[in-house]
Amino acid sequence: MIKPENFIPFGGNEIQPTDAERARIVILPLCYEHAPSYGTGSEDGPYHLLMASEQLEAMDEETLINWGTLGIHTLPPLFPSGDPETAVMQMKRAAEKVLREKKFLLSLGGDHAISIGPVMAAAETYPGIGILQIDAHLDLRDEWNGSRYNHACIMRRIIEKTGAPVAQVGIRSFSPEEVEYVQQQKLRPFYAHDIDPRDDTWIGEVLCALPDTVYITVDLDGLDPSVIPGTGTPEPGGLTYRQLIRLIRAVGREKNVVAADINELAKIPGTQVSEFTAAKIATKLFVYCL
Fold first, then answer.
1. Is the pLDDT of residue 37 over 80?
2. Mind listing the pLDDT tens digit for each residue in 130-173?
3. Does 73 belong to an annotated binding site?
4. Residue 92: what pLDDT?
5. Which of 11, 15, 271, 273 has the fewest C-beta atoms under 10 angstroms from its C-beta?
6. Residues in Cβ contact with 261 at an 8 Å cutoff, skipping those fewer than 6 apart
7. Predicted pLDDT at 19
8. Rounded CA gap, 40 and 33, in Å?
9. Is 112 assigned a ligand-binding role in the annotation?
10. Is 193 annotated as a binding residue?
């Protein structure tokens, strides 16, 4: 586990406003991993993403926006309880403090269970919110590895606790139990094999599936492993980087995106590509969703 004193603000110390009150964007590092299914290391994901963010250039190449001037404040990292249900409530309370002030919240995980608390907080703050999930997996199991709050259960818990409409994009791995739940709930995932790399019509369909106010959760395994190899379950056949950015751009332009998270980063020793790309995705959320 990385010690709290080793964390740096997103973009480095020069980016950090003097106080959170002046910030438009608040970064919440959630250092949590419990009962992973396969690869490990996501607990330290926020640290590695923040370290990589210091190496980014502040000018966005598509919009020519200097994201370093948007007012980004990084909170001290939260190390939640080892009890999954307790951890969810701790993360929910941390997110509530930011969302009540109507600031844009970006939570950094951690395994995908870090999304439950912030989504619950966002649903209470913004009634009628919808969830855009970028993921290789449906995450609709009722229980996994001894917990109903495991990373493989997060969308089921979110649907049960918030009733929010969901658009699940990039899906290509799931269990028979999850297929049954999809059919029962009449969900309509956007499966990876149906997404044409030469045609972005699917993005319009995603927009139609979402209400006006949106929370975006980016499980990095939603991207192809050629883009993000450093994740716990790297499933082949995922979204490209440019497909993800075009989706974020469209949702940011057409919807009111109030919060997001990036999760499941697991560093591979000797390479920085996954954490650098994840940090770059964060900046795209800033420039397109504010």
1. no
2. 999 999 999 999 998 888 999 999 999 999 999 999 999 999 99
3. no
4. 98
5. 271
6. 30, 106, 107, 108, 109, 114, 115, 118, 216, 217, 218
7. 77
8. 8
9. yes
10. no
Q: What is the DSSP string of 217-241?
A: EEEGGGB-TTT---BSS--SS-B-H
Specify the pLDDT at position 10: 97
Task: Report the sign of the C-alpha dihedral through residues 90, 159, 274, 103, in that order.
Answer: negative
Q: Which two tokens stand for residue 49?
A: 């993403």
Q: Per the structure block, which two tokens stand in for 163?
A: 């009733």
The fraction of the chain above a pLDDT of 70, given in percent, is 99
137 is in an annotated binding site: yes
Asked if residues 218 and 264 have their Cβ atoms less than 8 Å apart, the reply is no
φ, ψ of residue 36 to 5 degrees: the values are -65, 155
Residue with the two structure tokens 């409409």 = 165
Report the DSSP beta bridge partners of residue 133.
168, 217
pLDDT of residue 18: 62
Tokens of residue 182, six digits: 């999809």
19-289 CATH choice from 3.10.620.30, 3.50.30.60, 3.30.2310.20, 3.40.800.10: 3.40.800.10
State both tokens at 220.
Answer: 């990095």
pLDDT value for 1 = 78
For residue 56, how many other CB atoms are within 10 A of its CB?
19
Residue 139 is labelled as binding a ligand:
yes
Per-domain residue ranges for the chain? 19-289
